[in-house]
């Protein structure tokens, strides 16, 4: 821990030869939660592979408290090509080549420590300009940066090869229909319960499997009775969506972009298979994804376990560092991030700040043709 002025403390961690690090955001958030620090800066150097130079992957998280209120991690990480929110930011910077070094490992450590020292100094100058170096680049970054405009998908040292999509709330805004289906089913089968609110649904139910939701809401029923509840709920959902459903804005163009760049795609969902096939049919995506879908309830565990996304990676024949995931719910994001996937939040029901700062996503989009998203993905092909 480093004292940074004005009663604030910064936790600094540097991992060497850490390998693929797409789960860095989640680890950083866990460190902040478990420590007494007001902010955490985590860096991880990647091993040197043939024809590649070393890289330092960085992630920062800060508390929403009085001590950390002047910390702007987005501006700090912008100094090394990254960016983000004041309280949540990430970036990747290339380190000098060690091709001709007698001791490459020592050279990488020295270069990484130099970058970390620069970033710590920048944070100190934000908290107390009198004790830190007033870096003009840092001041310019803080003034020019829009709070979310600089968020990017962090790079890994291998090209992007695959995309894993959640379905409900991600390919289509179907969460509102699931809410109405649960509301109607519970009113009919359990009228003694208070009517569920959208706030309760978003917090306790969205993104989770029926096997988790129904026992939580109706714990006194037998397993068979609970199963009948979710069966009737899914029948209600299919009835409500029997006419048509709309794909999210920009999805068609994004799928075409994936095809033109030979990116593999797959759907990973907690929906029962019958519902998944129904939704894909209503969206006109059955032909594309019918044989490329993972059903969480058919895995060892559904989301928020990483198992569905790990199965998705197995089906694609790719590693997590070669892929990104799209998710809309905290439960789904937890699943994808636990599978070491860089995860982009689809902002169908939550803010970018919440999904990045609280749930570990790398950025958020409201459309699949978001310019920031496409720009950062093109750089990784």
UniProtKB/TrEMBL annotation:
Transmembrane segments: none
Alphabetical list of Gene3D superfamilies matching this protein: HAD superfamily/HAD-like, Putative phosphatase, domain 2
InterPro entries recorded: Beta-PGM-like, HAD-like_sf, HAD-SF_hydro_IA, HAD_sf, PGP-like_dom2
UniProt keyword Magnesium, yes or no: yes
Pfam assignment, any one: Hydrolase
Cofactor(s) demanded: Mg(2+)
Any GO MF annotation of the entry: metal ion binding
Keywords for this protein: Carbohydrate metabolism, Magnesium, Metal-binding
Name of the molecule in the record: Uncharacterized protein
Species assigned in the record: Pinguiococcus pyrenoidosus
Organism phylogeny: Eukaryota, Sar, Stramenopiles, Ochrophyta, Pinguiophyceae
């Amino acid at each position: 821990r480093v004292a940074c002025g004005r009663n604030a403390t910064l936790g600094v961690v540097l991992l060497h030869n850490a390998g693929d690090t797409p789960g860095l955001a989640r680890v950083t958030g866990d460190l902040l939660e478990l420590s007494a620090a007001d902010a955490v800066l985590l860096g991880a150097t990647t091993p040197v592979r043939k024809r590649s130079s070393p890289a330092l992957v960085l992630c920062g998280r800060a508390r929403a408290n009085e001590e950390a209120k002047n910390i702007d991690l987005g501006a700090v990480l912008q100094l090394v090509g990254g960016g983000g929110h004041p309280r949540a930011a990430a970036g990747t910077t290339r380190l000098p080549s060690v091709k001709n070094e007698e001791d490459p490992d020592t050279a990488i450590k020295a270069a990484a420590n130099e970058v970390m020292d620069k970033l710590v100094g920048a944070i100190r100058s934000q908290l107390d300009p009198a004790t830190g170096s007033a870096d003009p680049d840092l001041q310019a970054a803080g003034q020019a940066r829009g709070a979310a405009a600089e968020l990017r998908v962090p790079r890994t040292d291998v090209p992007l090869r695959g995309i894993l999509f959640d379905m409900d709330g991600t390919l289509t805004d179907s969460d509102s229909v699931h809410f109405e289906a649960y509301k109607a089913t519970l009113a009919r089968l359990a009228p003694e319960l208070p009517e569920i609110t959208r706030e309760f649904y978003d917090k306790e139910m969205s993104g989770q499997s029926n096997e988790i939701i129904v026992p939580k809401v109706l714990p006194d029923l037998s397993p068979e009775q609970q199963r009948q509840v979710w069966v009737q709920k899914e029948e209600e959902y299919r009835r409500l969506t029997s006419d048509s459903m709309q794909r999210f804005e920009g999805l068609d163009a994004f799928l075409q972009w994936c095809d033109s760049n030979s990116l593999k795609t797959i759907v990973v969902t907690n929906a029962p298979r019958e519902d998944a096939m129904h939704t894909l049919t209503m969206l006109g995506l059955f032909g594309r994804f019918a044989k490329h879908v993972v059903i969480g309830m058919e895995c060892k565990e559904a989301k928020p376990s990483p198992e569905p996304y790990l199965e998705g990676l197995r089906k694609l024949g790719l590693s997590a560092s070669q892929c990104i995931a799209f998710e809309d719910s905290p439960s789904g994001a937890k699943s994808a991030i636990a599978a070491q996937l860089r995860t982009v939040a689809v902002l169908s029901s939550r803010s970018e700040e919440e999904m990045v700062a609280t749930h570990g996503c790398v950025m958020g989009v409201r459309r699949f043709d978001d310019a920031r998203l496409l720009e950062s993905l093109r750089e990784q092909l």
